[in-house]
């Protein structure tokens, strides 16, 4: 690993991109500390205690939500717009055709996603502003202030979207993913400091702190293993002659990932469970208030529903994102086949059966890492320090993808030198 890092650092272009990415991170962190004008931050900071569902959203924003800064909504509207666009691609013929086109089609999808981000961002920002008005958290409860706060929050999300594009173009890795990564990692020193203060004050002992560290290490290890885990389906390509050249005759494999859906099912499940809580802030109805209380974060009903929804959405999103019929059709078109399996429909059924089995393991894994924070406090006796598998899942996934892109950059430079 150290040799790989040294090889990467020896590339001048990588160092330039790394410095650019670091500057973008600094700008992002500065924006987290710019408060929204007209908001009483002290009145709302207590609503976002670490360990609840809003604490999870605050973790993704790097603490911007609890401070209610101009970047309070983080990049969440863009993520939601991207997910909705991906789902629409599977059912809307026009979007499906765009996804199959070249760069022009992808640019059209990206443009629609950006417009969707602005629309969803303003709706979410207006809802948050109205909730502040209802809870008397605005200095001036006029509708002008509500609209001003909504516009500022939407502009903050648009700025982060632009910042992510700049990182993707001039930095290293996917800019949107790295912004989420930076927000999560930025909270890590604060958690370590809180843990240290607990030990110094005698609130917890060394054994509890060590147990917490072991659980954190265990979570990181299993997340890395499952993220990298895949089932390789062997594929053989028949020899064929085109003109005077012979093609095929080689073997390869299809890498079917255990966690094909990534962190998307957790986001879906969180959004569904937040619905009754959000509605309860606006409608004073006994039934809705009862639902919000029963499905409050950390309750038994919430934990069970959270796990079930994650398992359901894992299968749902995997079926949407992985087009097995198209995969087998492309394989057959180029003369590929799975040894012992007939091409066409039998191959599709075979791959679907394998995917169903490994997705079950991935679904239970996601449910486990999502609900584990509910039990960490009970196991270790440590309260007020959030360490969730969801955050680890995102950090590990982004770190692995970024490292792969960095290694690809190094290999590209080495091959260019060899050609010259």
Structural summary, described in words:
InterPro entries: SecY (IPR026593), SecY/SEC61-alpha (IPR002208), SecY_CS (IPR030659), SecY_dom_sf (IPR023201). The chain crosses the membrane at residues 20-48, 68-92, 112-131, 143-162, 169-186, 206-224, 263-283, 303-324, 358-379, 385-403. The protein starts with a helix and ends with a helix. It has helices spanning 2-9, 12-32, 41-44, 53-60, 64-67, 76-89, 93-100, 103-134, 143-170, 175-186, 188-201, 206-228, 264-280, 286-294, 300-321, 324-333, 345-380, 389-419; strands spanning 230-237, 240-242, 245-247, 251-257, 336-337. The protein has a 3-stranded antiparallel β-sheet with strand order 4-1-5. Helix content is 72%, strand content 5%. Helix 7 packs across helix 8. It folds into 2 domains: 1-186, Preprotein translocase SecY subunit; 204-388, Preprotein translocase SecY subunit. It is mainly alpha-helical and 420 residues long. It is globular. The model is unreliable at 49-53 (pLDDT under 50).
Characteristic terms for this protein:
420 residues, Preprotein translocase SecY subunit, 2 domains, 3-stranded antiparallel sheet, 5 strands, 5% strand, SecY_CS, Protein translocase subunit SecY
Instruction: Look up the CATH topology of the largest domain.
Output: Preprotein translocase SecY subunit
The residue-averaged pLDDT reads: 79
What separation lies between the terminal Cα atoms? 28 Å
Oligomeric state of the chains in view: single chain
Residue share in helix:
over 70%
Q: Could you list the spans in which at least 5 consecutive residues all have pLDDT below 50?
A: 49-53
Helices and strands, in order, run as HHHHHHHHHHHHEEEEHHHHEHH
By CATH reckoning, the class of the largest domain would read: Mainly Alpha
Give the second-level CATH assignment, the architecture of the largest domain: Orthogonal Bundle
* Biggest β-sheet description: 3 strands, antiparallel
CATH superfamily of the largest domain: SecY subunit domain
By secondary-structure content and strand pairing, the structural class works out as mainly alpha
What's the overall geometry?
globular
Strand order of the largest sheet: 4-1-5
Q: Would you count the extended β strands for me?
A: 5
- Residues in β-strands, percent: 5-15%
What is the overall number of helices? 18
